[in-house]
Amino acid sequence: MAGDPLCDAFRLELQAVLDAATPPITWEIVDTDNDADAPPDASTPYIQLRFEGGQEALAYWGSPGSNWWREDGQVFVDFLVPLGDGREEAERHSRTVREAFRDRRFNTSLESGSVEIRIETVSPLFGGQGVEGGLRVKTIAFGYRIYNVG
Predict the structure, then answer these.
(1) Residue-wise pLDDT tens digits, 10-38
(2) Considering its fold, how many domains does the chain have in total?
(3) Which SS3 state, helix, strand or coil, does residue 25 take?
């Protein structure tokens, strides 16, 4: 991984959730926003991360010139399955991921120092009508906030 540290942290955390599921969820994570992953063909289900922006605000901590910024954003997790197959599995996997990320906290390091990423909100499954390249798309979203910890 050589992308943005925040995006890489989300990818690692999602992989940990997939590996810890019972049974483990073995779908490949394709992070098209941050690396050169090529999506599999339309016969293979996979998971895609999308980072759709957010907002940043000055957090008035520290001495002048040393203030930190607070970031709020959203991450979308798409579950893509071949048309006509895999809907139930995508729905089960999305429920597993949603429940694992609800109120989850994990850490990473940014240029400004160590941060804690807190999942503030988790959306219900949506997007059942989406079709992309012969695949049906089911989506969940996480609202996150970054807290500076040092």
Answers:
(1) 999 999 999 999 999 999 998 665 556 66
(2) 1
(3) coil
